[in-house]
């Protein structure tokens, strides 16, 4: 990886409507040109759109939402798709979700987050779940974007990203 090329990071989840969308937008906001984030789902529903509460929480945090859309990971398997350097699953294994598997050679890590769209309660309680998820994602991304450039070769990137999974 050259120091001039951004590191492409793909965040994967099941439906690509909440956690992976939050992570994509947050990393593009925080990455300072060193990182370029994308997101996708292993099985987005027909006509899936980003969760409106995810978009609201991002907007209130001052993070751009233009261009965010739910999409299948098949888009990133096409010949003209950007090459991914790091693939991070953000679904929650503990909740019994099936997390997507990414074939190929990018570095991989799993950062599990509970699905905020599954929270029951008042609209304010649901919105708070999205805020808390964004906050948790941003804490890990803060560590990722501040890794020294020397740490960002493929093997170091994978071990660093996996180590961040234990940070909260």
TrEMBL record:
Pfam families: LMWPc. Residues 7-147 form the Phosphotyrosine protein phosphatase I domain. InterPro entries: Ptyr_pPase, Ptyr_pPase_sf. This is Arsenate reductase ArsC. Keywords: Arsenical resistance, Oxidoreductase. Its EC number is 1.20.4.4. The keyword Oxidoreductase applies. The keyword Iron does not apply. Coiled coil: none annotated. GO terms for molecular function: arsenate reductase (thioredoxin) activity. It comes from Variovorax robiniae.
């Amino acid at each position: 990886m050259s120091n001039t090329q951004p590191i492409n990071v793909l965040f994967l989840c099941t439906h690509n409507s909440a956690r992976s969308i939050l992570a994509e937008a947050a990393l593009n906001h925080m990455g300072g040109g060193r990182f370029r984030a994308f997101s996708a789902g292993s099985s987005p529903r027909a006509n899936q759109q980003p969760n409106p509460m995810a978009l609201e929480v991002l907007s209130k945090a001052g993070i751009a939402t233009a261009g965010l859309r739910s999409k299948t990971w098949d888009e990133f398997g096409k010949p003209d798709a950007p090459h991914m350097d790091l693939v991070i699953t953000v679904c929650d294994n503990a909740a019994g979700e099936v997390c997507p598997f990414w074939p190929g050679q990018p570095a991989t890590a799993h950062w599990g987050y509970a699905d905020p769209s599954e929270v029951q309660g008042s609209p304010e309680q649901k919105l708070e779940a999205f805020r808390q998820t964004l906050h948790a994602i941003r804490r890990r991304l803060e560590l990722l974007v501040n890794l020294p450039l020397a740490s960002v070769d493929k093997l170091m990137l994978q071990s660093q990203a996996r180590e961040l999974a234990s940070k909260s």
